[in-house]
Design goal:
By secondary structure, the protein is of the alpha+beta class. The chain is built from one helix and five strands; from the N terminus they run ββαβββ. The protein has one helix at 31-46; strands at residues 11-17, 20-26, 50-54, 62-64, 73-77. The protein has a five-stranded mixed sheet, covered by helices on one side.
């Protein structure tokens, strides 16, 4: 059971960028946390990031086109730049 000091974390949004790896965690039962994670997901998708769902073991997941609050881990990769 989660306490005020130790919130339950059911999902993690991992954002890969030039600055490194940023993480946003949420409890799927907390609408405010889910809303913040979804807003960041949507913001990054608009910038061209790709979202991938994987479980905590790192097993291959699927490409996400919309935010899924039931995902254990979502990895956001920046758009590829090349020539």
């Amino acid at each position: 059971m989660a306490t005020a000091e130790m919130p339950l974390v059911t999902g993690t949004l991992c954002i890969m960028s030039e600055e490194g790896d940023t993480r946003i965690q949420w409890d799927k039962l907390d609408p405010e946390q889910v809303s913040k994670a979804q807003a960041k997901f949507d913001e990054l998708k608009k910038k061209g990031y790709a979202g991938y769902s994987v479980n905590k073991k790192g097993d291959k997941g699927e490409v996400l086109h919309t935010f899924d609050p039931n995902s254990e881990r979502v990895i956001m990769m920046p758009p590829m730049v090349g020539g």
